[in-house]
Amino acid sequence: MKPLEELEAFKVIMVDGEDITQALGKNIHTLSLAAVVDEELEPIPFQIDEYNEGGAIYFDGWDVPLLGAAEIFDPQDKLLFLYKDAGSRKTKAQRFDGKPVAELSVQGKDGVVRYVYLMESSRLRSDEQYVRYSSEEALVETDFYSLSYNLDNHINWKDLSISGYEGDDNPIDGLKFRMKTGVVGNLTTINLNNEHIIAQPAGERIGPIRATTQMDVTVWMFGLPMMQISMQVHHYPKSVIYDARIMMPETRRSMMQDSSVGISIDANNLLGATVRTASGPLEAGLVDGSIDEIEKNMVDAGVTEKAGRWIWISTKRNLDILTFFDYLGGTNEPLSLVYADDQDVVDLPERFPGQLPNVGYSIDNFPESGFFGFVFSFFFSNGYDGDPRLFTQQLRVLPDVVVNQI
Question: What are phi and psi of 385, to 5 degrees?
Fold first, then answer.
C-alpha cells in the first residue's frame, strides 16, 4: 500500500463512540485496535478518552462531571489512532487474538481506503508510544520534538528541541501570554505577563496518541487572584494545542475596561525566516530585525475568521511552524495580529533577548460575562510545500471514517 504523504500520515483520527454502536456499553479496558502490517494483523497504538459535560477531556477530581459512565465506552467517548497506522483490508485467513467488534474504513485525499479493526478481549497491545510524558520532569517527548516546562509555572517553557532542525540555537524562546487591562476609576493600565499567569498541572491523561495535561491557571493582579482559567494542553506527535476555557463573573468583569490578552510564539534569532498570514499580503514578510512594508501590511490586515486565522513561519532551517486560532462556543471577540521583528528589544520573562520574530494573536476585548473560550494550536514540520492557502486547509481536514459491521 502506498505510504501517505507527511501532511496526512500524522493526522489523528478521532471517532465518536456514538458512531461505533457495536462497542457501546463495553469496558474500555477490554478494547484495542489492530491493522494489517506486513500481511499480518497486528496491534496498533490507540487510546480511548472520556469526556466531561463541558466537551473537554474528563479528569477525576476536576469540577466538571463525566459524561456517561466511568470506564465504559459511551457515545461521548472518542477513539484515537494515527492515520498512517491504518492498513489494507484483512482477509479471512488473517487471524488475531480476541473478538472482532467493528471494521473502520478510512478514506482521505488519495482515494485509497485503509482499515483498522476494533477488537475485544485481545491480550495483544502495541508497545509504540508516539507521545511520551513525564509529570515529574514536566517533559514531553515525541519522535519529532521534545518540550520541557518550568516546574513552578507550566506557562513557561524550559527547552524545546526539534528533530532535524538545522539552526545553531533553540528555535523558540517560548510561548508568551500577555494581558493588558484598565481598571474602572483608575487611569493606570495594568500589564501582565507570564510571571502573573501561573499554570499548575491538576491532572494528566497519558496515552500513546496524545498526552493531555489539565492545568489550573490563575491570573494574579495586585497580589490577588483575579481570574481562574481551565486549560487543557494536548501534546500530539507533531503539534501542541492549548484549549482555554474561562467563566467570567460579571462583577469582576465590570471592574475591567479596555482589556486584551495576547498569546504568541517568541522565536529565537530566526534571521532570514519568512512569515505569512491568512489575511495577507501574498508576499512573505522577511525576519531581519526591522519591520518592512510587507510586515506593516501584514499587521494592518489583522486576523479574520473568513481568511482562516493561520500564521506560517518558515525558518529556512528544516523547520516550519504553523499556528491556528479558534474560538469556542459563542465567543467571537475581535482579534489582531501580534508581530515583532526586532533584534534588540527585551520582553521579559524570556531566555533569549530579541523578538526574531514574536508572532501570534491578540484578543482585543473580553465578553461582558459568561463563558469565554479559545484554542491556540501550533504544528511542526520539516517543511510545508506549496500554497499555504491550500495546505493549511488540508492539514485540518480529516479523512472520512465509516464503521462497518463484522
Answer: -110, 145
Amino acid, res. 107: Q
- Indicate the burial class of 289 (C-beta count within 10 angstroms; 0-12, 13-18, 19 or more): middle
**Helix, strand or coil, per DSSP, at residue 49:** strand
DSSP state at residue 264: E
Enter the DSSP assignment of 108. Answer: -
- pLDDT tens digit sequence for 173-198: 999 999 988 776 666 788 999 999 99
Task: Provide the grid cell at 361.
Answer: 494573536
Calculate the alpha carbon distances from 74 to 63, 175, 385 in Å.
20, 36, 40
User: What is this structure's pTM?
Assistant: 0.94
Give CA–CA dist 317/367, Å, rounded. Answer: 41
Tell me the per-residue pLDDT of 299-315, one tens digit each, with 9 for 90 and over.
999 999 888 999 999 99
Structural domains of the chain, with CATH: 6-124 (no CATH), 131-394 (2.70.98)
Alpha carbons within 13 angstroms on the beta-carbon side of residue 149 total: 23
Q: How far apart are CA 157 and CA 139, in angstroms?
A: 10
